[in-house]
């Protein structure tokens, strides 16, 4: 701040057209408490009626305060009142000796965003760090030219990773790490000056800390879509320092350790280099740039805890993020969040220790997931002048704005439901990507053998077992095949039960069990018939999937005024019978080929 003039951490390309736009900035508590000024002036305030400030006590984040913007200024008295209302926050001390840190930024064809992010990283207040920029499967050489021409800095290393996917990119970066700590961020951020120092403060809280994540507040709230996203995610506003361990159940997180969003996000976290290698890097079947399109950050957070390490959330490790600003970008991102979550949950269901913990939390998780619904859109009231009190043009313009606002709210709500529905696509996408990763690993291994041996590389946690002895492989394949055939038969029977119950002519003592069988077994059985699951995993996947799908369908039907229980049940029955029968036919046709491949020495 200079002479009462406040600037923003992230600039906007254009002035807002939305009347509910929020100017975003930050202030130190001392500036608010002791300034002799009555009002602060805002830079680039045109179009903003409200300002949001992140208040800090030097490094420590205290919370957020909003104030009305009048004539490009905000009232200091309003900010002081907001400051007094914030809860008390304890400072977290930095370690006496700072470590060397490697910062990783993965990017793909976004040179303008990368320019801002990399500029902020190189301006960090930290004595010892370097930066690895990973150019991930870009279609042009713009990223390379930007780094080589504008960032001629010995601290910056540019790495090309041709395999798409943020997990591939981050694994490539791990091969170039020089620091004891590895900090990960994205290319659409501006990092706070003290970001690395505050990450290190988190690591200093306990000797078993292996991962620290930080706060990712919205750097821009120019459009209603950005405000919707800001309201929907939890990692943008969590200002409480916390230390998490698998053996210590937090009272306020009943879903722990599967508390999606509470541990942060992939745009702002750091691992010790030792932990990153112990975990095997990032799962190449997860993340943006792959068909699953997400889930890699959820996965590494959970695996850190299950490996016996502590995870710290340190809000003062701050990274400003620019959320998607339009409906099309929000739709794409929301679908990715949904499929990524579904893919990660599939991995959880296939892992013994994770599955056992998840099983006791599944019902509550389903309720919480569905309670998010489509979400709401923060829209200011659009005043429509009464006829005769304003010019006809003003009346027409206000009415058009009201109609547009209502339609946008409906569209954003539909996107919220689309995100939930996309969770159901995650398991199939994850399974297909696992097979693709296995094929690529086999090709890479063959190339290594041809070249005289493998190069040192972090490829991510193994997602397929190494080839076992033929007898063991045969038993495993037979067990999984039995589960798939049993699931397909269960889908057919559940569909038949739904068709019998759909007319509603049976006595209630028979009607209710048939409906319950169709709901709890059918949809999940179809999914299980396509996955390689052990029976214990199928016992979790089947009912959770069934409940999720049916609740989503019935909620969507009720929302669109097309509610008809009999019609929904009949449609479900037909779909289950057809899907189960087709899967049974395919399994029968392929069983001989699979056995032949196993006997030949390759389990598939």
Structural write-up:
With 604 residues, the chain is an alpha/beta fold. Helix content is 48%, strand content 15%. It has 19 helices and 15 strands. The strands form three sheets. Strands 7, 8, 9, 10, 11, 12, 13, 14 and 15 form a nine-stranded mixed β-sheet that branches. Strands 1-3-6 form a three-stranded mixed β-sheet. Strands 2-4-5 form a three-stranded mixed β-sheet. The relative contact order is 0.08. Residues 463-478 and 592-604 have low confidence and may be disordered.
Rg calculated over all Cα atoms: 27 Å
Low-confidence stretches: 463-478, 592-604
- Helix coverage percent of residues? 40-55%
The end-to-end distance, rounded to whole angstroms, is 63 Å
- Provide the structure class: alpha/beta
Taken from the alpha-carbon principal axes, the silhouette is globular
Mean pLDDT: 83
How many β-strand stretches?
A: 15
In DSSP terms (H or I, runs of 4 or more residues), the helix count works out at 19
What's the main sheet like?
Answer: 9 strands, mixed
The proportion of strand residues reads 5-15%
Could you give a short description of this structure?
This protein has 604 residues and is an alpha/beta fold. It has helices spanning 29-34, 76-85, 111-122, 142-150, 166-174, 195-203, 224-232, 273-278, 296-306, 327-350, 352-359, 362-371, 392-422, 426-451, 470-501, 508-520, 522-528, 535-559, 565-599, and strands at residues 5-6, 22-28, 39-42, 50-57, 60-68, 73-75, 101-107, 129-136, 156-161, 181-185, 189-191, 209-215, 242-244, 268-272, 310-321.
